[in-house]
Design brief:
- This protein is mainly alpha-helical and about 200 residues long.
- It is built from seven helices and no strands.
- The chain has helices at about 5-35, 35-50, 55-80, 85-110, 120-140, 145-170, 175-204.
- Helix 5 (about 120-140) runs antiparallel to helix 6 and helix 6 (about 145-170) packs antiparallel against helix 7 (about 175-204).
- The N and C termini lie far apart (about 50 Å).
- This is DUF305 domain-containing protein.
- Keywords: Signal.
Length: about 200
């Protein structure tokens, strides 16, 4: 074949290969975002972004953690519905029980608390940064379409965001009740992350 013709054909093949690879990556991203667990995470992010901020760290921490915990409960309910591993189902049920109780504590606090001066607007930015980091971590994961594995992976990212926000509350918060709850979340969810990572090591 004439070399003058060979080069355009080669270039065309390269373009076709690149297009196919890009389309495959796009299709995988669409599939990832269509999973029930990822939809729950994305809905949570939309709700948290839309939630009014008072710039009082204690108040905004409690309000955002209600939404954050609610998403963890929904993800855990999906694990109970679609998962098959009994150990992971037990973990999911434990998450539901603990975080429902903590939501009650947050709502009780919010019901009797008025935002206080001085305002701390940087706390809201820290929360936003932590949540964006959580979504980036989840988006970077390879979804296996095995509910038990994907639940464990995404719950690690979800728990880490709760820990990060709780640590920010300890730095900027002023209310003793919220500080105690934030510390309890840090302690408890660090342990749960270790349990989830251990399970993944044994079950990938």
């Amino acid at each position: 074949m004439n070399r003058l013709f060979r080069l355009p054909i080669y270039s065309l093949l390269v373009l076709v290969s690149l297009f196919s690879a890009c389309k495959m990556d796009h299709d995988m991203d669409d599939m990832k975002h269509d999973t029930p667990l990822m939809k729950i995470m994305m809905d949570m992010m939309a709700q948290m972004d839309a939630q009014a901020k008072t710039q009082d760290p204690d108040h905004d921490f409690a309000a955002q953690m209600v939404l954050h915990h609610d998403a963890a409960i929904k993800m855990s309910e999906e694990e109970l519905r679609a998962g098959s591993n009994q150990e992971m189902k037990t973990i999911a049920q434990d998450v539901i029980t603990k975080q429902r109780a903590e939501i009650t504590q947050f709502n009780t606090f919010l019901g009797g608390h008025q935002p206080m001066q001085p305002l701390v607007p940087q706390f809201n930015q820290i929360q936003k940064t932590n949540m964006d980091r959580m979504m980036a971590a989840s988006n970077a994961r390879t979804m296996t379409m095995r509910t038990d594995v994907d639940y464990a992976q995404m719950m690690i990212d979800h728990h880490q965001a709760a820990i990060d926000n709780s640590e920010a509350l300890l730095q900027h918060g002023r209310n003793a009740t919220m500080r105690q709850l934030a510390q309890a979340i840090i302690t408890d969810q660090r342990q749960e992350i270790a349990t989830l990572q251990n399970w993944l090591t044994r079950n990938r």
